[in-house]
Design goal:
Trefoil (Acidic Fibroblast Growth Factor, subunit A), Immunoglobulin-like, OB fold (Dihydrolipoamide Acetyltransferase, E2P), five-stranded mixed beta sheet, 3 helices, disordered N terminus
Length: 438
């Protein structure tokens, strides 16, 4: 039989952690320097405690196949150091060695004394035979004495031992955003209402995640009270009838793991109410700064052109380059510009400027979701509109003013090469912001 020389020392690091798990070492390849291990005798249902003079007392343990779960703090973890076939097992006072007397272990101050004479003679199905070749006793093995109820080195046959390596696990956690801020929620269709979705991830949890509102249930609500251990998503709804600051706490728990999520919202009045009869202005939309597709409202503004992004915010494109959006503002000077998406269908057919260039300068009401678009507050999912007949400012004023002294038929809006402008009788071109084009 080929013998592997195995220099080892067993390190008593600390008392065992209740419930810690260890797996059977069936091959030396399973070990790495620094591993936490216990010495065990599975057949007798025990593990070794701390070295106590000349032996290691036994401590009862629970085994399940190749897994050991500790339910006592009297057992001890040891640290194995080294690699290959050369290992040392040390503990706080030194190294475990064998003495010149039978049935006795000792503490060595250096690894090159008796402890260096341990040899792994056999490793079969987890059973380890540690041969001590020190002094006059060359055939003593580290074994378990079931009568004396401790581990030591014996020449006579006792019960075989095993190593169990600690299973390192990550602490269980619940991971999510711990603050959900609804920001400013503006009165819409008679109430302040908004919705946000929170993603929750469970790591190494053994129980489901319980969800409950511990504060603020009068203003906040949730659509789930429980998630699986791996997590999921929960919808949080804010709803209030009066303006003001609101706060709440949502508690997430799984066993001993607890996370509290702060909920905040500010309900504010706007110039409009978001209804068709009292729509928001573009300034209202910008001040709300919403990004929640569940918040829908009517908004009114002047059509300036197609949308683009400038300095990270919505702006008016230089050309009519798309059917899918328009830029509107509170006036024809371009104050408070927001971008409005035009989904395919009736709304796009009616409002897109590639087919309806004459709409530049018209005031329009649009209905949709108040969300970020082209870098800033805007509208998507636009589902309704109304073109207004009231006299607009800006472009139409220029038309009317120039028509007073000229043949009105010679003053007209022109859509050419993706641009809209007013063609004056003298040939000058004025863009939609009233600036002469050069």
């Amino acid at each position: 039989m080929k013998k592997l020389f195995f220099f080892f020392a067993l390190a008593v690091m600390s008392a065992m952690v209740w419930g810690a798990k260890y797996t059977l070492v069936s091959s030396l390849d399973d070990l790495q320097s620094g591993d936490k291990i216990v010495i065990a005798c599975q057949k007798k249902g025990v593990v070794a405690g701390a070295l106590n003079g000349t032996n290691m007392p036994s401590v009862s343990a629970t085994f399940a196949d190749d897994l050991l779960t500790l339910t006592t703090t009297e057992a001890y973890e040891y640290t194995i150091l080294g690699g290959g076939t050369n290992w040392v097992i040390s503990f706080e006072d030194g190294y475990i060695g064998c003495t010149s007397a039978k049935n006795s272990l000792t503490t060595d101050n250096t690894a090159d004394k008796y402890s260096s004479n341990w040899v792994v003679e056999e490793l079969s199905e987890g059973d380890i035979k540690y041969l001590c070749k020190s002094n006059n006793y060359e055939n003593t093995y580290l074994q378990y004495n079931s009568s004396a109820k401790y581990f030591s080195n014996y020449a006579s046959k006792q019960t075989a031992i095993q190593f169990y390596k600690k299973v390192e696990t990550t602490a269980p956690t619940i991971e999510c955003q711990t603050v959900v801020d609804f920001g400013k929620v503006v009165l819409s269709e008679g109430s302040f209402s908004a919705q946000k979705q929170l993603a929750i991830a469970g790591q190494n949890l053994t129980e489901t995640i319980k969800i409950e509102l511990t504060e603020g249930a009068d203003a906040f609500s949730i659509d789930k009270q429980e998630l699986p251990a791996e997590g999921g998503e929960v919808n949080i709804v804010f709803s209030a009838s009066e303006s003001g600051d609101y706060a709440g706490v949502m508690r997430l728990s799984s066993g001993a793991v607890v996370v509290n999520v702060s909920l905040t919202a500010e309900a504010v009045d706007a110039g409009g109410s978001g209804t068709k009869d009292s729509p928001f202005s573009c300034a209202d939309v910008i001040n709300q700064n919403n990004d929640d597709s569940s918040i829908k409202a009517w908004v009114v503004g002047y059509i300036l052109g197609c949308a683009t992004t400038k300095n990270g915010l919505p702006a008016v494109a230089a050309t009519i380059n798309a059917k899918t959006n328009i830029a509107i503002a509170d006036d024809m000077e371009g104050n408070n510009i927001i971008a409005v998406a035009l989904p395919s269908g009736e709304v796009q057919d009616a409002l897109n400027l590639q087919d309806n260039a004459e709409l530049v300068g018209r005031r329009v009401k649009v209905y949709g979701s108040l969300v970020k678009y082209f870098g800033g507050p805007g509208m998507k999912n636009t589902s309704d509109y109304e073109l207004l007949d009231d006299t607009p400012t800006g472009l139409e004023e220029i038309l009317e003013q120039t028509a007073k002294n000229n043949d009105k038929g010679q003053v007209r809006k022109v859509f050419e090469n993706g641009q809209i402008y007013i063609l004056l009788p003298d040939g000058r071109k004025i863009n939609t912001l009233g600036v002469e084009m050069r």
